[in-house]
């Protein structure tokens, strides 16, 4: 009996031991290969392929070795079935992992071939937006399919699925209502990938905030606000709500700087100065440089300085520079063109005060007091003759 026990133990141990040792060696070798591939993935295609395959294979191959070894082990049939089932589930999940990594590798390659760090990046942003959104959706579908197939290999889960199909009406309605936000965002992602109301690096105004599209995920969009805050917005929001996209068709923009000047302002000199300012500023793209009087009131003119730039960042800086340099020019060459409202009010106020003080002295002989009409010359003479 003891001899039979040890023989059976040996028959079980040696196939499993060989499989474990071989699997461990392969696992470590593939991990080392993956680390080496990471160092060269940016420049070599073979390294990128190795990087994608190595990690899933480092887990899947030991499982396959164990699955082969288990078939040579004298164990009860139900034990063998359970072990084979779990090993098969693990291998299936590793394959799903491999598919997800392959999709990610294809996405990264397309993004590298279409950088957005160039001056005219409209086409690159379009390709990057489509690639990112479709990649996230494809990865989500792959994960969902892999997990679903793995779960359906369990008889209990398969039975639950059959029960759900039998009562698909009510449960489908409840599930549809519960999953509406998720599926709504997925459908919105497809709409954005096709219609592209927004793209990566677009300049947008969302809920009163100015920012750039920094990330487009499968269910949400990250907007980088000008002060480095991040605004996370569901994808579906961009389909259902109006928003401003400053770079929908081109990154070129027009911007204004307003000045309030005196009526004596020489507009011809202002236009010459504006043209000189734009021509000497590298942020001006050479398209628009206009000075116009757009409004007036009782004391000042509103002058609009309209300029253009290649992108929103350059435009903001150019507007500030134009406003600052134009004020310096007017202050140095035409100071009378600057508003003089405060000085005029001060002179007017001083003149009114002097009039009030001088009035009684200048017209005093024409002014009478109450009761003066009853005093005659005799009364005045008597008052003067009385001793003090």
UniProtKB/TrEMBL annotation:
Q: Which residue intervals define the domain Mechanosensitive ion channel MscS in the entry?
A: 182-248
Give a yes or no for keyword Cell membrane in this entry: no
Molecular function terms, GO-annotated: mechanosensitive monoatomic ion channel activity
Q: Where are the transmembrane segments?
A: 12-31, 52-73, 85-104, 133-154, 160-179
Q: Where is this region: Disordered?
A: 350-388
A GO CC term assigned to this protein in UniProt: membrane
What Pfam families does the record tag this protein with? MS_channel_2nd (PF00924)
Domain of life, per lineage: Bacteria
The record's keywords, sorted A to Z, are: Membrane, Transmembrane, Transmembrane helix
Annotated localization = Membrane
Q: Enumerate the PANTHER family for this protein.
A: INNER MEMBRANE PROTEIN, YNAI-RELATED MECHANOSENSITIVE ION CHANNEL
Task: Please identify the protein, giving its name as recorded.
Answer: Mechanosensitive ion channel family protein
Q: Which organism is it from?
A: Lysobacter soli
């Amino acid at each position: 009996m003891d001899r039979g026990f040890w023989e059976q133990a040996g028959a079980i141990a040696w196939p499993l031991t060989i499989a474990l040792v071989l699997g461990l060696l392969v696992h470590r070798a593939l991990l080392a290969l993956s680390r080496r591939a990471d160092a060269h993935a940016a420049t070599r295609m073979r390294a990128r392929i190795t990087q994608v395959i190595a990690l899933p294979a480092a887990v899947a191959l030991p499982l396959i070795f164990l699955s082969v070894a288990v078939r040579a082990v004298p164990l009860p049939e139900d034990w063998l079935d359970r072990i084979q089932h779990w090993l098969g589930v693990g291998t299936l999940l590793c394959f799903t992992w491999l598919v997800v990594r392959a999709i990610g590798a294809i996405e990264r390659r397309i993004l590298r071939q279409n950088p957005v760090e160039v001056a005219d990046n409209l086409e690159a942003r379009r390709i990057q937006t489509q690639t990112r959104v479709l990649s996230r959706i494809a990865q989500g579908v792959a994960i969902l399919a892999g997990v679903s197939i793995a779960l359906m290999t369990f008889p209990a889960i398969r039975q639950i699925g059959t029960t759900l199909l039998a009562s698909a009406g009510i449960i489908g309605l409840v599930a549809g209502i519960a999953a509406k936000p998720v599926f709504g965002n997925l459908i919105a992602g497809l709409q954005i990938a096709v219609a592209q109301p927004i793209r990566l690096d677009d300049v947008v105004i969302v809920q009163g905030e100015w920012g750039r599209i920094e990330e487009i995920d499968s269910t949400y969009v990250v907007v980088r606000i000008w002060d480095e805050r991040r605004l996370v917005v569901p994808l579906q929001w961009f389909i259902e709500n109006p928003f401003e996209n400053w770079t929908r068709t081109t990154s070129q923009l027009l911007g204004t700087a307003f000045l309030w000047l005196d009526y004596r302002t020489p507009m011809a000199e202002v236009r010459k100065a504006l043209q000189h300012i734009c021509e000497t500023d590298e942020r001006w793209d050479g398209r628009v440089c206009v000075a116009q009087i757009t409004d007036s009131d009782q004391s000042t003119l509103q002058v609009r300085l309209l300029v253009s730039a290649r992108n929103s960042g350059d435009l903001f800086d150019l507007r500030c520079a134009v406003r600052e340099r134009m004020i310096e020019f007017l202050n140095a060459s035409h100071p009378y063109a600057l508003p003089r409202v405060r000085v005029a009010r001060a002179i007017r106020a001083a003149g009114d005060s002097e009039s009030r003080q001088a009035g009684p002295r200048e017209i005093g002989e024409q002014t009478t007091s109450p009761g003066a009409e009853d005093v005659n010359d005799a009364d005045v003479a008597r008052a003067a003759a009385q001793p003090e």
